[in-house]
Amino acid sequence: MDMRNIAIIAHVDHGKTTLVDELLKQSGAFRANQAVAERAMDSNDLERERGITIFAKPTSVEYKNTRINIVDTPGHADFGGEVERILSMVDGVVLLVDAAEGPMPQTKFVTAKALALGLRPIVVLNKVDKPDAEPDRALDECFDLFSNLEADEDQLDFPHLYASGRNGWCDAELDGPRNSLDALFNLIVNHVPAPKQIKHKNEDFRMLATTLGADAFVGRVLTGRVESGSVKVGATLQALSRIGQKIEQFRVTKIQAFRGLQMQDIEAAEAGDIVSLAGMTKATVADTLCALAVDEPIEAQPIDPPTITVTFGINDSPLAGRDGKKVQSRVIRDRLMKEAETNVAIKIADTPGGEAFEVSGRGELQMGVLIENMRREGFELSISRPQVIMREIDGKRMEPVEEATIDVDDEYSGVVIEKLTSTRKGELVEMKPAGAGKTRIVAHVPSRGLIGYHGEFLTDTRGTGVLNRVFHGWTEHKGSIPGRRSGVLISMESGDAVAYALWNLEDRGKMMIGAQTKVYQGMIIGEHSRENDLEVNPLKGKKLTNVRASGTDEAVRLTTPITLSLEEAIAYINDDELVEVTPNAVRLRKRHLDPHERKRAARSA
């Protein structure tokens, strides 16, 4: 059977996973009566809840005696570590672009990686049946994007198709029959080259491990594309590190291949196949699995370095240990080390005290997903404000810069540009009308300036703006950038918050808690209307007397409190504050509590 290996690239919410669903259905991967969930490739709970792809996942379909291995890639740059590994397994890419929005920053990030590897793209203009679709403009922007990314002539001469992934059709012409995805299947078979590894099927076995998984029965499982030779169940292989050092020798206990959404056991794998092997105990991502006669490892793609670091510590608040069961630093460290083993974009380092760990990664979203997974597993943590990682280049202190692409209503463009350029030290690159009364702004802004900006941005644009960001490069340090302007309201007592007290405190600022919420001394319960922090008493009840007076029986009506998501809370805090994360709560607090005060607060709470 012929074989094609492709990856699908798209910006967040451009319809990539939905299109893969339709490819699976129309290729016969599902039975006619099989119940299949929407966005079947988003198998993780967080992926389904947030509507984004976090983990790269392969699948395969059969079309006219050709097996097409498809890799669904994450659309967000924070998960770029997944993308950089996975693109080395494919021979072509399908770039999916929203016909209304055109290529967006995350598209640019992944496409640059694909073009640098010499992969030839197929452009699919999706959602062309939407009222605001402009496929011709989107196509021109794709060509400009490839040109800016220094694509060669073959890559610039790309074929394109018009599609509606949700409705399951794809055609070479905009006014085509709109019946099926056959045009896309045929283009993949005819345009994407067969795996060049097939030529090396008589050589010694070699495979570069690109993703790491675990199975309760067979243990560690490594996935990758067979570069040369073949392997059978029971064969003895070795694992080589990136520098050629022998890690271990092992026996292959199981070989699995992707068939639709299922993994199927197979007896042998040949050059060009994307398969998973089991049997090893130490080998990991970027290692070469090969025959015993091989002594040269396969060159692994370099991974972009982390840009931010967050400190993970134990939860030492008075309410610690009430929700989660995994609270010791040893257990937290083991979990983080396990994460670093499977996610090459994350680096873990111990702090001098040993009770906290510095976790470095790509962005706030990546950190937020890791923390969310840990809290669902029963961990309790305290999280610091993200800090940008600086570099020393040619004797100069350099900091990371991100390209921010913003779509806002015309009336709000002024305040957004002012905040990005004057307050947050950004540089305006491009500003143009985006249609329907909107303006598209492109700016290069230091990563420090974008930490905590999203909430302020939504306030400035009345919730109508859309902000996308992607790592751009490094620039000389731009000096101090102001953080959050407003102060916070800090509880000076411990116990259950009283509605009457919160009602009286509403003149001081916006509340972050409701009545009967457990609070403790040092916990942040609201945002002050002024720039300074203020200690307040949320437990102060109403004084009762036997004298009746007008206004005595006034009803207490509380304003709905601000509810911060995990990522918003991490971005909101200042350097002297922490986010307390438990399975059931996300709280903010000041960093230090006096030990005696902590004991007293614990007894009160």
From TrEMBL:
Residue intervals of the Tr-type G domain: 1-196
Alphabetical keyword list: Cytoplasm, GTP-binding, Hydrolase, Nucleotide-binding, Ribosome biogenesis, RNA-binding, rRNA-binding, tRNA-binding
Gene Ontology molecular-function annotations: GTP binding; GTPase activity; guanosine tetraphosphate binding; ribosome binding; rRNA binding; tRNA binding
UniProt subunit comment: Monomer.
Entry-linked PANTHER family: TR-TYPE G DOMAIN-CONTAINING PROTEIN, TRANSLATION ELONGATION FACTOR-RELATED
Family that this chain belongs to: Belongs to the TRAFAC class translation factor GTPase superfamily. Classic translation factor GTPase family. BipA subfamily.
Name under which the protein is recorded: Large ribosomal subunit assembly factor BipA
The gene coding this protein: bipA
